[in-house]
Amino acid sequence: MADLDRGAEPASWTFKLSAGSFHKLSALLTLALLIFAFSFGNAAFFSINNGLTVLLQTSVIGLLGIGMTMVIITGGIDLSVGSVLALSGTITGLSIKAGVPVGPAMAIGVMAGAACGFINGFVITKMRITPFVATLGMMLIARGVALQLTGAAPISRLGESFGLLGNGSLFRIVEKTGGIFPKVVFPGIPYPVILLAVVALAAAYLLRRRQIGRHIYATGSNEEAARLSGVLVDRTKIFAYVLSGALAGLAGNVLMSRLVTVQPNEGVMYELDAIAAAVIGGASLMGGVGNISGTMIGAAIIGVLRNGLNMAGVSAFIQQIVIGVIVILAVYVDQIRNRR
Length: 340
Description:
- This protein is mainly α.
- The protein has a two-stranded antiparallel sheet. The chain has a two-stranded antiparallel ribbon with strand order 2-3.
- It is 72% helix and 3% strand.
- This is Ribose ABC transporter permease.
């Protein structure tokens, strides 16, 4: 336990982390090649406005990916994040309709996501149900509750303040032209991008500098050895799932705020994007390997790929095929790494 608290790492951990760094470098190179290829094919791709659009599209995937990375490092999986996103957004919208101010209402939505994560962690650790089955059940439950609460109908007229988080920006510069619409000199840095950066830095600090982060890695590397070393494995797993649920709730607030309407059908297949971001960024589905910076690169790859393919006129169905192939290749590389 003392070694874990001091952050000492066995040789196997050191090998995994160095291999993970190589995987992250490969992902970064892939991202650079994608940006070059799409900008070469379309000059508008490299514009400031399109760059900010890509960052906006990546913010939701990134938030989900951070929580998913925590869970994957422990050796688990969370298939419920897309449905929890929808449920949290729905609860936020219903709270606003009930007269709760926007800020507290969004906090309630995040807490609802955290509660779903706690249930996932409890079922997995105390009832000994595999993460795949437990979170698959929560995926169906959360989606069903969201649809039942709203009658499968969107919730609108939530006020201008509700759309501030998703559509506001920092350092926005406009110039009055005398017409109806002012000229936008600089669109500003979107709030979701700033939020993602803050959350990513906090999560990276937690994983690398705090005791709970070392325990998360230890649990995923060798659960029995971690338990014998004094790590509270069940508590560590529950923490990871609670964090994943809370970040899904936060992502739900961001997405619904961008739409300025609560859509209980949103978030379908988002769990696959989150898993893809983590795996492409170097997280191992075997557990014990992964980092936040790699996940951010993975989320950026998905965002750039979808944006570039959209601008090239490629259908959404082909995009799913491309991303699916990339995920398979990333998992294959991870398997080769583990065999070595």
